[in-house]
Specification:
alpha/beta, 8 strands, globular, DNA-binding
Length: 292
Amino acid sequence: MKINLGYACINTELRKNEVYCSRTCRISTLQKDPGILKQLVDDNLRDLMTILEWNDKNDIRLFRMSSQLFPFASHEKWGYSIEPWQEQLKKIGEYARDKKIRITFHPGQYCVLSSEKENVVVNSIRELEHHAEILQRMGCDQNSIMVIHGGSKTPGAMDRFKKNFYRLSVSCQKRLVLENCEMCYKVEDLLPVCHSLNIPLVIDYHHFNINNDIELEFLIPFVLKTWKRRGIKPKFHYSESEPGCGDSLTERRKHSKVVQSLPKNHPEGVDLMIEAKDKEVSIFLLRNNLKI
DNA sequence: GGAAGTCAAGTCTTA
DNA sequence: TAAGACTTGACTTCC
């Protein structure tokens, strides 16, 4: 069996040697020394290249970039242009393309397009446009997607999501995909929105296992259609609860250190992002255990 | 140098 | 209505 497995943001082996791409700072530090940002971004981009080279050597061709690559770049007050790093981004993008490493993003929990608060929506739009700009400057193709959740479950949330989706630039719209979550939006809740906006749907198996009503086998064909009609290679997420964790939702939500197995009936040709604390180590374990 | 507390951001629950 | 929990890794402060 051949599955394209990937991991998110941090390479634990390289991290031990201070190679990582999520350096940031506090606003209080920025106020004292605004020039610190350039050094943080330079170091993050340098290490991003190192991580991609490591991925290539280890035949890992799916990687989620950290949203902290450019700290505060989308901040209302402290935001700045990423244009000065165009050359580095282009070079990194060319390398990823050359090595067939699929790059993706997963902006954080504060990115809520369905919020009732206009300022939250405006901040979310700025955040998404920033992520899309990075991918654009890297020259990434349509397979470099940005995954977000449905967000708020207040009345009218999905209508607001749809309305605010059209406030995004076209290049940003083209990269946006939705993911089911364990609290608010199940796969079947998101399918109508994805159909209406013509955006793909990421199945997160872990979230599905915590929050579901319908058999996944029934839903998968509908989900795969959302990718096919856009010509984007499907990607799902997988993680497990910590073995021996309690029954409460809080305990089950936490990701385990490693992933022991693959989801049952995972469809052929769907990339799989492994979301475990031990990151790339989980991929090696899976390859060994399952002879992938 | 290590441990503990804090941090840009949102939403939901509880008091 | 306000405070705290949620989640997570990195920063910052304290001892």
